[in-house]
Structure formats: C-alpha cells, structure tokens
Amino acid sequence: MSADGAGLGPAFEAVMARVAVTAEAVGPRFPLYAEPADGRWTTTGRGSWTGGFWAGLLWLRAVHTGDAADRRAAAACTARLAPWVRADTATRGLILWYGTAPAGDDAGATELQDLGARAMLSAYDRELGLVPWGDALGGPRLLARVDGVPGTVPLLAGVGGQGAAAAADHLSRHLDLCLGANPGVLIPALTFDAVAGWQPCPDPPPGWSRGRAWLLLAVADALLRPDLALPGPAARLGEAAERLVAQLGFAGHEFPSCGPVPAADAGRPDGPLDTSAAAITAVALLKLARVPGPRAAGYAYRAEAILRRLAEDHVTGPGSGRPTGMLLDGCYDAGKGLAVRHELVWGDFFLALGLAAVHGIVDITRV
To answer: Which of 30, 36, 83, 136 is the most exposed, having the fewest neighbouring CB atoms within 10 Å of its CB?
Structure first.
C-alpha cells in the first residue's frame, strides 16, 4: 500500500459497514440499486447479472472481519448463484467469477467456480471464436458484448488447456470487434448475421461509460496470466491496455477536464455520471500496476487517485441524512433513465475491492 492510499481506510470501513446494513435489509434477495435519498434497495430474487457482486461483497466483508458468521453468510449467498451455471449467458463470467474469486479456499465457492468454468467452455463457439452473449437475459443470442468478457477470461483460463485457449480466443475476438480499426472509438456490442457478419448494435451506444472499463478489466486480467497466450503479436495485450487507458483522457498524472468519473454516455456530456465505471477502471489499473513494466507506477497512481476522488466526493458519510458508505452517482442505464444517480451493487463491489487491495486485504491478482 502506498503512503497516499493510507488515508482511504475510513472509506473502506464505511463501505463494509454499508454491506452489513444492506445484508439486513435484503435478506435472501440480491440488491441491485439503491435510492440516493434513503438507501432503499431494489432487489431481485435470482441476482440477475449482478448477483455475483453481492456475494463478492459479502466475501470481502468476511475476509475483513474474520468472523465465522460473515463467512457463512457469504457462502450461503454464493450457493444461491448455482442456477446460473446452467443459464445461457456470457454474464456467467461476472456472476460466477466475482461471486467466487474473493472466497479464497472456500470449498463450495471453488466447486461452483469450476462448474461455471466448464459450463462456459461448453458454450464456446469455435466458428465465432467466442462465447456468445446468450439468451438467458432476453434478446438475440449471437451477440458480442464487452460486459461478456470480464470474469469470463479468468474463469475459462482456470480450466487450463482448452479453457485457456478459449479464454484467449474470446478476448482476442472481442478486441478485434470492439476496438476495431478506429483508435478513438469503442463499440460495446455487435450482433452476428449469417450474411452480413458482425454489425454494431445501437445499444449500448459507443460512448457507454462501462464499455471501456469492462474491456480494460478483461485485458488486465489476461496480462496477469502468463498461460494465456493470445494469437498474434506478443505485445498485443499491452498495446490494447495502453490504447484503452489513453482513451480515458489522462495527461500524465492529471485527470481529464471532466474528472475521473465519466459521463454515463459520452454523447451526453451534460447527463448523469457513472461512478461504477470509475470504480471498475480503478480496479483494472490496480491490476495493470502489478504487471512488470515502465507504466506500472503510473497505473497505481491513477488507480489510487480515482479511489480517493470516489471516496471524497461520492461516498456518503456521517451526518448526511443517508446511510453511511453508499457510493452514489452510479448510472444503471442512461438511455432508459433507469437508476441514473443511484448506488449500484457492482459499483460498491469494485470500490470495495479496490480499497481492499490498496490496504493489502486481498490480492488483486487473484480476484
């Protein structure tokens, strides 16, 4: 942990306290997003694509407290993710990786992770060179989306052999499709047509805040796995990381003029922000900082600077009239006007993960 990161301890304690309050409020359900005025959660019964982040938060709390009851609560929540093993969706990467990786050597989490990885491998389409988006959440099945890459890469790679090869193909195909030839534009989603091939989708839009963050996170995970050899030049992953970081708008160690929290849609710069995208980016940068190279120190500096800004400007504190430890100003879906200034469970997770890593509570290379 750097000297600068030492001052982030109160923010981590506040977020962990918020996890305990949320657990009491939601019971066996999964929190999705909370109202900014009073912290009241909208929940789901099965967790949707975000269920793993709630289980992951419970595991982070258990690691932090060392309490047996907290471990049991985290294990029980992780067990409720089991039905997603059989669901046809690439978001199993988000659900089953982040819901199990923070659990360390927990036997139930390890078994679920292995089952999920093998199910993902069975869904790999060799002709397309990726795991399709799937139809479990509705819509067309043959999609390539950036949020179907993070979690999926380390999940598949954990199988070894064919799994590592499928992980490399999956990431490589998304880099080809989503980054494309235009260095300044990221295409978050494409649909496959047997005649026309891959075509961009209008939703999410090219300026979607989490698109770049999700892809950067997947690239960072791949760089931390020497067994994951992508086809093409050996330096490709490093170049992709540099390109994505450059698109964040950093000039040296300075934030872009808009600050470290991006607009939820770059095409609507006066619209809502998205702190969850900033938190995902901070975790990705912390991972990149663990990859040996001349840019490692700069990545670490930027990551901690983002975490500090989130903690100082967007996390509720005592006396605010709201529950303490809420990461506000997250945007679920700007286009639909859904939960545009709210606390989001995945934003909480990545903020907590970043803070835990800075304080040496978790090994960021393994989560």
So the answer is: 83
